[in-house]
Specification:
Elements: H1 3-7, H2 15-45, H3 51-88, H4 92-127, H5 132-145, H6 149-157, H7 159-163, H8 168-192, H9 196-219, H10 235-269, H11 274-311, H12 315-342, H13 344-349, H14 355-368, H15 375-387, H16 391-412, H17 422-456
Length: about 450
Amino acid sequence: MDTQKQKGDFSKGSIYSNMFRLALPIIMAELVQVTYNIVDRMYIGHIPGSGTQALTGIGIVLPFITIITAFSNLCSYGGATLAAIARGEKNDEKARFIMENAFTLLLISGAALMVFFYLFTGKLVLVMGADEVTAVYATQYFDIYLTGTIFVLISLGMNSYINMQGFSVIGMWTVLIGAILNILLDPLFIFVFNMGIRGAAIATVISQFFSSMWVLVFLTGKRVPVRLRRLRLNGATTAEIMKLGVSGFMFKATNSLTQGVVNATLRLYGGALGTLYIASMSIINSIREVLYQPVQGFIEGAKPVLSYNFGAKEIKRVDKSIGAMLKVSFIYNFAVWVLLMTIPEVMIRIFTSDAELIRICVPCLRVYFCVFFMMPFQTSSQNTFTATKHPGFAVIFSLFRKVILILPLTLLLPMTQMGVMGVFWAEAISEVVGASACFITMYFTVWKPYRRLAKEA
């Protein structure tokens, strides 16, 4: 690896080349993660005699898992962006100081989350729409998952500091290690040891442990310019990390809130089929997660390039970076949208063979994803806000789409003639309104001024 690549100098060379050099290993890792997600949910959905109930249980605790990953976003979105900007300013010591604060914050968050959920999970799953049967599967899975909370936060939250320094291949292996181990361990614990959904949780904890160890060994080693050396918690730096990272946190946290309300509403308006509608939403969320990960990988590769050039005051490259991130993510999302509208049943059958569940899920999926091609306008814009130190806008639009739009629509639309399908229409409507508002604001407050400066430069 040459000096430029090793030190992550993104002020030179092609914008697309820099982005894809960072993004391709991340995307490859995400594709393996896609395979893992498919296999994991497939194994759970095909557990003999209880697959549908177990899959519903996963859907019930998904909001809690999302909250945990939200805290990884808090430290990675905020800290890694600040560290990349500091590196663009040629201040590696400041970047290290930021990274060490973020790591300490992750450890504290992980311990607090583990204690909280151990105390309240039993009650929370009932609020989230579980019945007596699915509550058992939900708690069986999540109680074990919680033992690996800190491992999850380290592997997700600190991997950004590997990618930020230009070591995207190493960052790829963080994901690969966890995904491959999970794929191998799932059938062993679920079927061979006959542990069912508990086995799936054990496989996840073991896999995340090894991923987190990989991250820590590399970040404390001698290859990285910005090395993790100690724990520290400086008030001003922590506040700055949280201020910039709150948009990534809110994106996940509001997802968690929305998922909880959605499950409860599906249970209320779904009648006798309420459990199947929750299982359908669990499948839809799994498909969304699987298909959106590659473009998320590209954005993860694009952000350090954008942040570095922002810190280096490379005006023209900031302008080009924003355009490149939006263009690539839109092309991918449009292709995925065509796939979902064309062969929804094929995608659903990956997760279940229950004929009744498939029958219910197909129209739900088509409605939920009917404007999925709009999402890049929201995600690229929010990441642009974060990468250029405009966290306020990123937070506002996370709240706007999830809290101001989706929550009221989820509660109100089922009261109309739409019935339970109103829950799925709420997502589609919010994507159109939220993505449009977010992109228009980003264009006029960030992108247009940089395009004007770039022309004048």
